[in-house]
Model the fold of this input.
Amino acid sequence: MKLVHKIILGNFLGIVSIVLISAFSYHEFDLILTKLRFVEIADNLNASFLKMRLSEKNYFLYKDPLALSLIKKQLQESYLTIEDLSPEIVKAVGAENFKRLTFLVRKYEEKVEQIGEDNKNSPDMEMSIRGAGQKLRIFSESIIGLERKGVNEIILASRKTLLVFFCLVIFVAITSTYFFFSRMFKNLRRIEKTANSISEGIFVKIKGKIPKNELGSAMGAINSMCEELETRHEQLIQAKKLASLGILTAGVAHELGNPLNNISMVAQTYLELYDRLHEGDRLDYMKTVLEESERIRKIVQNLLDFSRPKKRDFTVADINSVIRNSFKLVQNMLDISRIESKLELQEGLPPVFVDEDRIREVLVNLLNNAAHAMSAGGTVSVRTNLAKSQNHIIIEVEDTGKGIPSEFLAHIFDPFFSTKGTQGTGLGLSISYGIIKRHKGKIDVRSKVGVGTTFVIELPVYKTEEGRDEGL
Done:
């Protein structure tokens, strides 16, 4: 079911529940008001009946003609009240009770009229009138009692019914939320988690079943975007590595030049002095050629290893060894730039679980940036130590260059942001940031203009019980 249909259905159920409760409440309250209105009318009638009984008593005891007039007047007023409010009375007590009330009033009126016609006070007449009045009064009071009881019963029943409706609405709300929206919220959290991972440079696709609705379309688009971003990211890394090779060319040329010159000189000397050399001297010359050739092979191999695209290969490694190998790639460049290098590596550090090639890329990039910031010479230092928590290894790459202005520090890891002007691509630090994030680490920078810059990397210590894998 599509999200829009779920939302419409959920709102429809809520509206239906509200309408039902409102209709029920309106009906019950209308009934209560009707009955309360009748109780008020009945009280007034009952008061009139009571006055008539008092007048009736005065008439029979004291032979007061005025009392008979008062009875007739009260009867007339009662008739008018009953006629005017007959719809409300019928609605409250029903047609049968209304007829009974009218009949008793009329019966009492007939008895009173007989007194007026005969003007006799026989015991039978008196008993007859008193009996009719008593029946009217009793019936009136019984109706009032029943209606009051009915009001109380309606209030109690309404309260129970409203409680049931309320529980039903809560149940419908919870059920609809669970069935209609719980999966939607779960999928939204999956999208949010993936989006946060992408923002940190971790291109992990949304796994599991993809729903066939609007969110499913968005999740599919995010997965496609993730694949594309990962491909572009790898391309950017490779482009950055090739750009770094250009920076290393001068140092590499110098590094290759030394062994080649040595081989050339040894070969010339060997040819000129061949006849005068002893066998041991010849072996020494050949050993020198072999050593210099091996030196060239290692330099070329390091360059190939650095430039060749590789799959992620996480292994348990000694971070100090990774740093020393990284320095071998840039040492000659630093020498040519008259930059002094210092390694202050704490011994006995616990191992880390890393992709050595990627960490080497980060270090080479930071060392290249340091060399660029110290074009007129300076010092670059690399330090390692264990964090106080003993859960992370800290790597510091510090230079004595020109520093980075404070307004640039917040954007230093943004893609395509560069402090080198047209000489920089603005991708090196962004790629390095993504690599460190994929290693569950952190990278930060602090700098002061005219003093230098320090990049601080934190990598988690490897723990076998964590069950790490290459999907890190």
Remarks:
- The CA atoms of residues 115 and 121 lie 7 Å apart.
- Strands lie at 314-317, 339-345, 352-355, 378-386, 392-399, 442-448, 452-460.
- The radius of gyration is 51 Å.
